[in-house]
Amino acid sequence: MSENNIIAKKDLNRVFRRAFGMQFSWNYERMQALGYCWTILPTLKKLYKDDPEGLKHAVNRNLEFFNTHPYMALPIFGVSLAMEEKMVQGGEVDGHAISSIKVAMMGPLAGIGDSFFWFTLFPVCAGIGVSLSQGGSILGPLAFLVLFNIFNLGTRYFGLIYGYKFGGSFIEKISGGSVMQRLSEGTTLVGLMVLGVMTATMVSVPLDFVVGEGEQALTLQGIFDGIMPNLIPLLLTLGVYKVIKKGMSTTAVLFIVIGLAILGAMIGLW
């Protein structure tokens, strides 16, 4: 932080801590808006300590509709606070610009956050934790929590710091050179790879029916594995995905899968 900044490092640290409670007041009208304003309220009071009317406008401005991935909200905090500070210091920034940049950032960052944290990082860390737990190790849940939260806390903290540092040019910096597009494509690719691994290791469709007799006897499982290992789990997963995409409820799909499992078990016993 330079000497000309009103916002100090301790103020950003306070925003970082308060951001963990951002969704405590989530509502269907403005979603995360109240939590967003509460998170930065002490910093706004510091910026507008000599301007009560300006503080009132800042609070109203930061109570507008807001919704994004909670881990990815911190860069937006940093950028908006930098712009609030610049406006207080007489810079060429107005309230409309601050609101606009929040709206511009919350959509793309929500998409990146969902793709990376929920569909990529979470399954990878959970898979590592489950693998360790299956061996009876207490390190399973600990590994999951440590690995996941390294990225969680790191994204929050450094997102806030660099968002404030770059200010209004944050979007230009991360969008330059198609960074956001490449990041989105990369997380999608890794997510699909993880989905493939989870399908092969966690979806089990045993086909123990014997075809042929004597030395020529083969199980259906062996036949399909000869064509492509884990072919049936893959087809089952793709089939479930297709019927859900067509509009069938997940509850109905679950009952169908359970019914097929029971039918398979009865045929096997017969």
Describe the structure.
The structure is a single chain. The protein is mainly α and 270 residues long. It has a two-stranded antiparallel sheet with strand order 1-2. It is elongated, with a radius of gyration of 26 Å. Helix content is 71%, strand content 1%.
From the N-terminal CA to the C-terminal CA, the straight-line distance is 75 Å
Q: Major β-sheet, in short?
A: 2 strands, antiparallel
**Percent range of helical residues:** over 70%
Specify Rg, calculated over alpha carbons.
Answer: 26 Å
Structural class: mainly alpha
Q: Counting H and I runs of at least 4 residues, what is the number of helices?
A: 11
Strand content range: under 5%
Residue windows where pLDDT falls under 50 for at least 5 positions: none
SSE arrangement, N to C: HHHHHHHHEEHHH
What is the averaged pLDDT score? 80
- Spatial sequence of strands, sheet with the most strands: 1-2
Overall morphology:
elongated
Give the tally of β-strands.
2
